[in-house]
Amino acid sequence: MSVHGCDMILALDTATPVGSVALCTAAGTVVSRYFDVGLQHSQRLFSEVEAALGVADMDVEGVRAVAVAIGPGSFTGLRIGLSAAKGLCLAAGKDLVTVSTLEALAARLPFARLPVCPVLDARKREVYAALYDTATGVPLELAPPRAIAPAQLAQERAEVPTIFTGDGATAYRELLADNPAAQFAPLHCARPDAGTIGWLALSKLEKGQTADLASAEPDYLRSPDARPLARA
User: Fold this and answer.
1) Which residues of the chain are in CATH 3.30.420.40 domains?
2) Can you give the chain as a three-state secondary structure string?
3) Cβ neighbours of residue 175 under 8 Å, at least 6 residues apart?
4) C-alpha of 58 from chain center
5) Among 102, 103, 128, 157, which residue has the least CB neighbours within 10 Å?
6) CB-count exposure of residue 181 (10 Å: 0-12, 13-18, 19+)
7) Fold of 103-189
8) pLDDT in tens, 49-96
9) CA 33 to CA 93: how far, in whole Å?
10) pLDDT tens, 98-154?
11) Considering only CA atoms, which of 96, 108, 95, 168 is closest in space to residue 134?
């Protein structure tokens, strides 16, 4: 399959254990590949990128930009994804576009009648959550991403009609379901997707919203668990 790549976005997602790579245009997703390797994304990411480009019969020089999930998510996964995206941009002279993991989750539920609350399991009895209005088909942020205790999130949304999505909504479904007005997204919509990241990145690219390669950092929302050892 040969594809004209002038408007092609190469999108990467390594924010959660199930990673994905996609090639996207304004007309839709051309190639999409998933890989479930826990958090060892470094073992598969570049081979999946090469495979996706091979299916489209092109190389990275042919894409317009590289997009990546910037977080929140796995500390290790986010570092790997952003480092790979930066490396590809530097090697091929391409723009970098970063997309919120939570925004990408919300975008998988377009035209929702209710506010969409994407929730990622942050471990340590916390979740990453935000709130979006997707009624127009594009996520509009109502509450910014943050790390929060699941019980506090449930209390804040008590009695408020809300659609929950993401692995955090699955992990804490019983708690969130105490809200009789709560609804839950189907499981096939409840994980980040590189194709969605690419679609969002196309819009950002048209608005000139590119990231600085030197200063772009993952959006962890809280301090990493592992800290570098102090020098003696």
Assistant:
1) 9-101+191-206, 103-189
2) CCCCCCCCEEEEECCCCEEEEEEEECCEEEEEEEEECCCCHHHCHHHHHHHHHHHCCCCHHHCCEEEEEEECCCHHHHHHHHHHHHHHHHHHCCEEEEEEHHHHHHHCCCCCCCCEEEEEEEECCEEEEEEEECCCCCCEEEEEEEEECHHHHHHHCCCCCEEEECHHHHHCHHHHCCCCCEEECCHHHCCCCHHHHHHHHHHHHHCCCCECCCCCCCCCCCCCCCCCCCCC
3) 150, 151, 154
4) 24
5) 157
6) exposed
7) Nucleotidyltransferase; domain 5 (3.30.420)
8) 999 999 999 999 999 999 999 999 999 999 999 999 999 999 999 999
9) 24
10) 999 999 999 999 999 999 999 999 989 999 999 999 999 999 999 999 999 999 999
11) 108
Q: Any idea which residue has 């980040």 for tokens? A: 192
